[in-house]
TrEMBL record:
SMART domains according to UniProt: AAA
Transmembrane domains' residue ranges: none
Protein name in UniProt: Oligopeptide transport ATP-binding protein OppF
Source organism superkingdom: Bacteria
Start and end residues of each ABC transporter domain: 9-261
Key word Transport present: yes
GO molecular function: ATP binding; ATP hydrolysis activity
GO BP term, example: transmembrane transport
Keywords (A to Z) from UniProt: ATP-binding, Nucleotide-binding, Transport
Family membership noted in the UniProt record: Belongs to the ABC transporter superfamily.
């Protein structure tokens, strides 16, 4: 991670609730709220990759989309170079799109099937003022080469590519304007393992060469370990643990993190921590600690009081009542 003290992108207490209406729609008013993201705070420093990991339904993708303004935040702040993006209009955000980009989970649905690859890649260049057609084409061909595709692919349609090639196109479109921040939303989850490694290596190379800052969203522990400098664990819309990658894998502190890591085969005879039940509904999240309904170590305090997300060790933050100075070892 680049040695800086000020984050390039800082998220403060980000919350996103989706209204759920009754049978008469908006006329009948809001019946309930789906609490997709609740009080999330994180920092991205220039040149690093922050991995955001958790089970399906934990709010990872919603967090990424809300940071970029693709989904409107209910509350909280998203500070990019000190400016709160949640207060910007759509017109103002459009000018900033060249700095903030996203690689989507499903590349095919994010690519216009009626346009050729050259048109898809050149469209953001036209929007942001690249008037010279030859320069746009040269830039598109350059980016295709960077992501491992060939010049002949410039004239093809998205349906003529394999899944791995389409994901490379998604990456190419995201980086063509030289962005500073790229949010990758499950970019390799739909790919074969061999193709996953190729795409991950492309991302790591691009990050180094273009000095990209990345938020990498995934549910795969092995993938996030390979690509991330720091990792945040999400559960039911909240970040429950955050630490540098090596520190987190050497000594995870939160029971949820321990359970996830115990499920990853690594050749050692470690005891598996089995979580009972399913993730509670975000319509009615549990009181107190959201994890207490599945935590094998939960105490009475966990049911009543929301744990503070605090720094236990240097750069290692945890939201758990059990992780106190005098209690660190009792559930290890």
């Amino acid at each position: 991670m680049t040695e800086v003290t000020k984050p390039l992108l800082e998220v403060k207490n980000l919350t996103k609730h989706f209204p759920l209406y009754g049978p008469f729609g908006k006329l009948g008013g809001i019946k309930q709220n789906v609490q997709a993201v609740q009080d999330v705070s994180l920092r991205l420093y220039e040149g690093e990759t922050y991995g955001l990991v958790g089970e399906s339904g934990s709010g990872k993708s919603t967090t990424g989309r809300t940071i970029l303004g693709l989904t409107e935040a209910t509350s909280g702040e998203v500070l990019y170079e000190g400016k709160d993006l949640t207060k910007w209009s759509k017109k103002e955000m459009r000018k900033l799109r060249k700095d903030l980009q996203m690689v989507f989970q499903d590349p095919y649905s994010s690519l216009n099937p009626r346009k050729k690859v050259g048109q898809i890649l050149e469209e953001p260049l036209k929007i942001h003022g690249w008037a010279n057609k030859q320069q746009r084409q040269e830039r598109a061909l350059e980016i295709l080469e960077l992501v491992g595709l060939q010049a002949e692919h410039y004239f093809r349609y998205p349906h003529e590519f394999s899944g791995g090639q389409r994901q490379r196109l998604g990456i190419a479109r995201a980086i063509i304007m030289n962005p500073k921040v790229v949010i990758c939303d499950e970019p390799v989850s739909a790919l074969d393992v061999s193709i996953q490694s190729q795409v991950l290596n492309i991302l790591k190379t691009l990050q180094k060469d273009m000095k990209l800052t990345m938020l990498f969203i995934t549910h795969d522990i092995s993938v996030v370990r390979y690509i991330s400098n720091r990792i945040g664990l999400m559960y039911l819309g909240r970040i429950v643990e955050e630490a540098p990658t090596d520190d987190l894998f050497e000594e995870p502190l939160h029971p949820y993190t321990k359970a996830l890591f115990s499920a990853v085969p690594d050749g050692t005879k470690k005891e598996r921590i089995v979580l009972k039940g399913e993730i509670p509904s975000p319509l009615q999240p549990p009181s107190g600690c959201v994890f207490h309904t599945r935590c094998p170590f939960a105490i009475e305090r966990c049911q009543k009081e929301v744990p503070a997300f605090r720094e236990i060790r240097k750069d290692h933050r945890v939201a758990c009542h059990l992780v106190e100075e005098e209690e660190l070892d009792w559930f290890n």
